[in-house]
Specification:
The chain folds into 2 domains: 5-120 and 187-218, no CATH class; 122-184, no CATH class. Helix content is 15%, strand content 41%. The protein has helices at residues 57-60, 124-139, 156-167; strands at 9-16, 22-29, 43-53, 66-76, 79-86, 89-96, 102-103, 109-117, 144-145, 152-153, 189-198, 208-218. The strands form 3 sheets. A 5-stranded antiparallel β-sheet has the order 1-2-11-8-7, with no helix packed on it. It has a 5-stranded antiparallel β-sheet with strand order 6-5-4-3-12. A two-stranded antiparallel ribbon has the order 9-10. The two termini are 17 Å apart. 23% of the residues are buried.
């Protein structure tokens, strides 16, 4: 975990708009944000978007693609700039107040940044209870690890019981999850950067597929 929570990525999300014209990007940082962290000049936020020729995963991702970067930097919570760049060519740029959303001059990029409820959903208590039950089966010699792939091998009944635990609400707290709450992260906040950008900024052709990952970079 980075020493600066504002450089600690919680999740990176990417999805298309319903009309297929734009791509939504979201990056959450400062997991379990306590309300005092702020955006500032010490961290740079980057989405790495690779464009791959080919309409199927097998065809497109068999070789390296052409990378376009979307970069955001901040002076404060209310002052930021973001740009899309391929190599040394800047494709779009926006500067302003991201707390109320800012839009580039050509309208191809819109950016919001600020504190939001953590969108990640995970029943951590259910997962821990299921894992503990699996460990109990192994310890009692009632389940085995497959030599072929190292996975736990369960009977149908054992698998059904594990599935039930994964989906169950725990009546007791399983840290950091409170009792009687299936979504462990429902009470947590994060600092989020959300961008909607025209897909033409990243995709060279309609029969290409895109790969996306995110990174943060601390000022030296």
């Amino acid at each position: 975990m980075p020493a600066n929570q504002m450089a600690d990525i919680g999740d990176v999300y990417t999805w298309m708009t319903s009309d297929g014209a734009n791509i939504n990007f979201a990056m959450t940082v400062s997991p379990a944000d306590m309300g005092t962290n702020t955006f500032g000049p010490s961290v740079q936020y980057v989405w790495h978007v690779s464009d791959h020729p080919g309409a199927t995963n097998k065809a497109a991702f068999a070789a390296a693609g052409t990378e376009t970067k979307m970069i955001c930097t901040f002076a404060s919570n209310t002052s930021a700039q973001c740009w899309v760049v391929e190599g040394t060519t800047v494709k779009d740029y926006v500067k302003g107040d991201p707390s109320t959303a800012m839009t580039s001059a050509d309208g191809k990029m819109k950016v919001f940044a600020g504190r939001r409820s953590d969108p990640f959903f995970f029943n951590l208590a259910g997962f821990k209870n299921a894992a503990a039950a699996a460990e109990g089966l192994l310890g009692a010699g009632q389940a085995d690890i497959r030599a072929s792939d190292g996975c736990l091998e369960l009977t149908g009944a054992q698998g059904a019981a594990a599935q039930a635990l994964l989906g169950a609400t725990s009546g007791s707290a399983v840290g950091p999850c409170p009792a009687n709450q299936k979504d462990c992260f429902a009470n947590f906040n994060v600092m989020a950067i959300v961008v909607q950008a025209d897909k033409s900024l990243f995709q060279a052709s309609a029969d290409h597929l895109l790969g996306v990952w995110g990174s943060t970079h601390m000022a030296q």
